[in-house]
Design brief:
The protein has about 140 residues and is an alpha+beta fold. It has helices spanning about 10-20, 30-40, 90-100, 115-125, and strands at about 5, 45-50, 55-65, 75-80, 105-110. It has a five-stranded mixed β-sheet with strand order 1-2-3-4-5, sandwiched between helices. Helix 1 packs across helix 2. The chain starts with a strand and ends in an 18-residue tail after the last helix.
Length: about 140
């Protein structure tokens, strides 16, 4: 089983390498460090990694979400495990670890077409509470 721990800035390159398995383009080392630094130095975010033999094989990011008309909660902003280490309980361990260290409600958003991901979260006790669409207005450059 992996070692689970809070991410440090020295994990930025490894986290970036694992992140491409979510479909994101790799960041430069400078950008990866800057983004991780912004999260790990914030009181509103938590990032945990799973390590096997001193190699980061997965990570999870939680953030505190505040709303005007409802109580605050934590949301999983991302979870990924390197494909060579999937189906070994690492994702489950990361979610359980993150939720155990986070008081209150934890939510996660999943695309409608990711049925395997839905089953994964349901197996951990999450329940679907609503469906929604996400709309985006690109910023002006």
């Amino acid at each position: 089983m992996p070692t689970l721990r809070t991410a440090t800035l020295t994990d930025a390159t490894a986290i970036n390498a694992v992140s491409v398995h979510l479909g994101y383009a790799p960041l430069s080392d400078t950008a990866a460090r800057a983004q991780l630094d912004a999260l790990i130095t914030s009181n509103e975010h938590s990032v945990f990694v799973a390590e096997i033999e001193n190699t980061v094989v997965g990570w999870i990011h939680l953030f505190r979400a505040h709303r005007l008309a409802s109580p605050a909660f934590h949301e999983i902003g991302g979870l990924v495990v390197d494909p060579t280490h999937r189906r070994q309980g690492i994702g489950q361990a990361l979610v359980r670890h993150a939720c155990a260290t986070t008081p209150g409600t934890v939510r996660v958003r999943c695309r409608d077409d990711r049925e395997g991901t839905h089953r994964f979260y349901e197996s951990l006790g999450f329940t679907a509470t609503k469906s929604q669409r996400v709309f985006e207005l690109p910023g002006v450059s």
